[in-house]
Amino acid sequence: MVRKKVLIVASVVSFIEWFNKENVEYLNKSLECELHIACNFDYMEDTDEERTKAYIKKIKHEGVILHNIHFARSPFSMQNVKCYKQLKTIIDECNFDLIHVHTPTVSILTRLAAYKARKNGTVVMYTCHGFHFHNAAPRKNWLLYYPMEKFMSRFCDYIVTINKEDYNRAKTFHTRKVRYIPGVGVNIKRIHDCKVSKSDYKRSLGLPENCILILAIGEMIKRKNHEVIIRALAKTKNPNIYFAICGKGPLKKYLQNLASKLGVYNRVKFLGFRRDIPELCNTADISAFPSYIEGLGLAGIEAMAAGVPLVSSNVHGILDYVIDGKTGYAMDPKDVDGFACAINKLADDELLRKRMASNCWEAVKPFEIENALKAMWTIYNEILK
């Protein structure tokens, strides 16, 4: 039997490790494909370097063919001209049966590079992890990104979306097949069943054991909008409320300076990259997820799997599982006063948090990892079998 040849393309290796490792395993071992991955294998600013290097070594040992391409995040960077040429050479030489691409800028480069291959029978699939245009997006996003995505939809055979707003919008594009999957999957049972002593774990983080802990998980970049929670924290009157951020990123110094300027530096903890997410979620009293854009948002689902109510933005992906007033509170991502009010409500009312916990568990059940993987693997089987 001739092995099918598949190329997965993403911006950086952490994206493969975090969101695609089960798909890599399925394509490589269950479907026995000749699997190639193209991404920036050197960028590790957003991950645990030791763990990610071990993952690269593992998949290489298992026969996955790696192509190191230093994609730039901006679609307008001249660096991407070189990346396009590298990618086109790989695609033209390898005769792939399927090219599966992720992340917006890289998806444009890949779809253009695969133009000739697609005419020769290669199936091109784009998984969108959140369009930059959505019901709460600024007008400039619609003017720039909407026409670009709609035009580029001519250059692929499948668009896969991970939230329902994007799914309904993609159905108006030119792509023949548009599919919805419930995210990339969260091991909800693992988080829900994790048992910790909240007071002990808070002490281990250098926090008062009886404090109200707001937890945010996500890279310190503008899109994640940690700033609004720091500003909201400064507006709360309860000195027993603390805010912890898990993640790395270029805005750390800026956020530290902002917390200092607003007089809450001693109540904001920068925890860095963490491997104990289930324990942290079960230690938190409130979860913050104020992103400007989210395709779905694993961090929000992880927190709710631990029964922790969210204070979140009201953007498209997050609204697939957040129910305002029942699983937490959702508001405009720039609404500092709204976030402060929501934090105060939850911090002051333990019974309210407990009532919301069961609503949180129910709301995230559809996003259990088995459901997401089954949906994605059904599409792979449709194309490759």
What's the SSE blueprint?
Layout: E1 5-12, H1 13-19, H2 21-30, E2 34-40, H3 49-61, E3 65-68, H4 79-94, E4 98-102, H5 104-113, H6 115-119, E5 123-128, H7 139-152, E6 158-161, H8 164-170, E7 177-180, H9 188-192, H10 198-204, E8 212-217, H11 226-235, E9 241-246, H12 252-261, E10 268-272, H13 277-283, E11 286-289, H14 298-305, E12 310-313, E13 328-331, H15 336-348, H16 350-364, H17 369-384
pLDDT under 50 segments (min length 5)?
A: none
Helix tally?
17
Overall average residue pLDDT: 95
- In CATH terms, the superfamily of the largest domain is Glycogen Phosphorylase B
Major β-sheet strand ordering: 3-2-1-4-5-6-7
Number of domains: 2
Beta-strand fraction estimate: 15-25%
Q: Could you tell me the radius of gyration in angstroms?
A: 21 Å
Order of helices and strands: EHHEHEHEHHEHEHEHHEHEHEHEHEEHHH
Say what the CATH topology of the largest domain is.
Answer: Rossmann fold
Instruction: Estimate the helix proportion, in percent.
Output: 40-55%
Structural class: alpha/beta
Shape: globular
Quaternary state, please? single chain
Question: Architecture of the largest domain, according to CATH?
Answer: 3-Layer(aba) Sandwich
The number of strands is: 13
Name of the CATH first level of the largest domain:
Alpha Beta
How far apart, in Å, are the first and last alpha carbons? 12 Å
Largest sheet features? 7 strands, parallel
